[in-house]
Amino acid sequence: MTDTDNTQIRVGWEEWLSLPELGLPALKAKVDTGAKTSALHAFDIEPFGRTRPRVRFMVQPIPARPDLVIACSADIVDQREVTSSNGESEMRYVIETNVKMGDEMWPIEVTLTNRTNMSYHMLLGRQALGDRLTVAPSDRFCQPELSYDVYASAKVREAAPKRALRIAVLSREDNYSTRRLVEEGEKRGHGVEIIDTTRCYMAINATSPEVYYDGKRLPRFDVVIPRIGASITSYGTAITRQFETLGTYCVNGAEGIASSRDKLYAHQLLARARIGMPTTAFAASPKDTSNLIGLVGTAPLIVKLLESTQGKGVVLAETKKAAESVIDAFRGLKASFLVQDFVKEAAGEDIRCLVIGGRVVAAMKRTGADGDFRSNLHRGGSAKVVRITKQERDVAVRAARTFGLGIAGVDLLRSSDGPKVLEVNSSPGLEGIETATGKNIASLLYDSIEKRVRPVPIRKRKTD
């Protein structure tokens, strides 16, 4: 409605309206001139946002359908004490949103409160009526009628506005990747919390499994982004698995994280999927050293600890004698290790493909520091953007899919007989690849998350 248009709009004491910005296409409202403030039935009301105060809440738009729940979010414009018709006072969050009635649409302030026992889950107060709405107390539905059937429409669900998500980043470190995930998520209006994985603990039971943190039960998150360090893989995957049990969408699931960290099992999975990799051998008995080396080929060889990360615990043995010495040394330490063929033509370079949501979104070539065959950026290597082939792209996507990872860093070697997967990283760092490619990887990850976690109605389970 505009200030210049003085046409009076007649409304009855009961009308249909919609709140399009909240994704509520049909609500039956009571028009009450005795109430100053408008009110919307809401529960599970959660404020969030450090620089931009917002609120998430659940709405049951149909009084007779408690199983149909719509998740909404909006900016907080105020928090004020409201006295209801029965004389009870309550502090309520106040939001501003557009209301549509017939062909007219205008902004109103709405307070959020639990109206479960009320016949109308929306009350339109006199502040929202303004000067142009004339109430006919004895009439009903003077404006066009709507229908609750719209909530069953797929088109309506697809057109629903993006709601704020409550997101947990499981991380013990305040590093570049964690900060970027928080920064980008909050820029998009989501609530992002950093949760120290080691400070979580679990209640495991059949009826109400929970995750606790610093003495309190954690709220229900829409999304968990695991950034599990290698030193706490076992506990980190247990926590991730608990979130999965609660029905939370985990960008990388516990099984994918655990299998990608177990280098022996990871290579077995890649072999099962017929994905190219350097020839690899593994044995437990010291009597098999010679045969182990023979299975891989001739020197030079790579001897790699199963627990190695960021290039640590990876040794290049340039001769057979050197390989035997390294293997004997590792066995003396009772360490588990793999022996791999050294791909000479890679010349100390590998390609990191960043796979998000089943597609390669960025790729960089990493080159080792002078005299170092390892190309890890943590060990002084350098990186630059690279154009990859369709075959390399397909191999990277297949590798990430093999582990069921929503985000993965797939490291490839360019060999004379095609790309070979060196490793699949379930917690890839963002700094190196964002710097090398100039791409906003954190934003691309949120694109994938928002596509996956859509604002569709939640139907509660019926209880006996």
From TrEMBL:
This is Probable alpha-L-glutamate ligase. In the C-terminal section; belongs to the RimK family. GO terms for biological process: SOS response; translation. The keyword Transit peptide does not apply. Its cofactor is Mg(2+); Mn(2+). PANTHER family: RIBOSOMAL PROTEIN BS6--L-GLUTAMATE LIGASE (PTHR21621:SF7), RIBOSOMAL PROTEIN S6 MODIFICATION PROTEIN (PTHR21621). InterPro entries: Asp_endopeptidase, ATP-grasp, ATP-grasp_RimK-type, ATP_grasp_subdomain_1, Peptidase_aspartic_dom_sf, Rimk_N, Rp_bS6_RimK/Lys_biosynth_LsyX. Keywords: ATP-binding, Ligase, Magnesium, Manganese, Metal-binding, Nucleotide-binding, Protein biosynthesis. GO terms for cellular component: cytoplasm. It holds the Pfam family RimK. GO terms for molecular function: ATP binding; metal ion binding; ribosomal S6-glutamic acid ligase activity. Residues 267-450 form the ATP-grasp domain.
